[in-house]
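hey can u check if this looks right to u? its 91 residues, i copy pasted from the old doc so theres a chance i mangled smth
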Amino acid sequence: MRVLIAAGGTGAASVPIDSYASFKARVQKVNGSVIRSTGVVHRETLPDGMQALALTFDSKQLTPGEYILVLTGVDQSGMPEDIGGYSFRVR
């Protein structure tokens, strides 16, 4: 099972990733309506050495309900590749 790790109360989330040159992300409701899309997002190295993406969203955009964070990786040649979706719930 894929897990989304969210920092409590901040609206920030870090998602472990593979090695791509860059990424794009979108948050959508389970019905498919897109809440927010990002431009290019780059990897960050966390204090423990783990590679991750840090995405921040305005908490007002995420009303109570179920969502999916969809990640797309972009390789060195610029080709996009779907990485997967990460389900989460806002209460």
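The longest strand covers residues 80-90.
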